[in-house]
């Protein structure tokens, strides 16, 4: 019960493609490396309007899934987003699309459960109502 409630607490989203250079581990992982167990599963899809969305799910060696949801928007509106894991809500929040490419990027970690994991990403433009939906199985 405690874990379920903690998973529903909204966490801040990253609204741009920040981070370390390609291939370089984050500094927090230098002494205790957590590496991908296999290549990430990726899906890219056009949304209901002019935007495009992507979901990337990577199975990590520490028993977690790294889940990345990205939307390339045609404007700088606020987007409401959520992740579901095997049908249950995991995370939700809002973020403003920004930067030169008007994108938003949300990164979260989920437990890698036994069997196939289904990860769902949904983002909705709060001004226009445009919706992006992607599902990936790993």
From TrEMBL:
**By what name is this protein known?**
Uncharacterized protein
Q: Which residues form the signal peptide?
A: 1-15
Which keywords has UniProt assigned to this entry?
Signal
- The source's superkingdom equals Bacteria
Region entry Disordered, spans? 14-33
């Amino acid at each position: 019960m405690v874990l379920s409630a903690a998973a529903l607490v909204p966490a801040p989203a990253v609204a741009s493609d920040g981070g370390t250079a390609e291939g370089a581990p984050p500094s927090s992982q230098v002494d205790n490396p957590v590496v991908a167990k296999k290549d990430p599963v990726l899906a890219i899809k056009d949304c209901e309007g002019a935007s495009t969305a992507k979901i990337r799910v990577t199975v990590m060696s520490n028993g977690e899934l790294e889940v990345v949801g990205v939307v390339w928007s045609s404007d700088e509106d606020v987007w409401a987003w959520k992740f579901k894991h095997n049908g249950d809500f995991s995370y939700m929040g809002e973020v403003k699309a920004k930067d030169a490419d008007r994108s938003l990027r949300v990164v979260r970690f989920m437990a890698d459960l036994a069997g196939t994991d289904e990860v769902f990403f949904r983002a909705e433009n709060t001004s226009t109502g445009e919706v992006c939906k992607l599902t990936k199985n790993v």
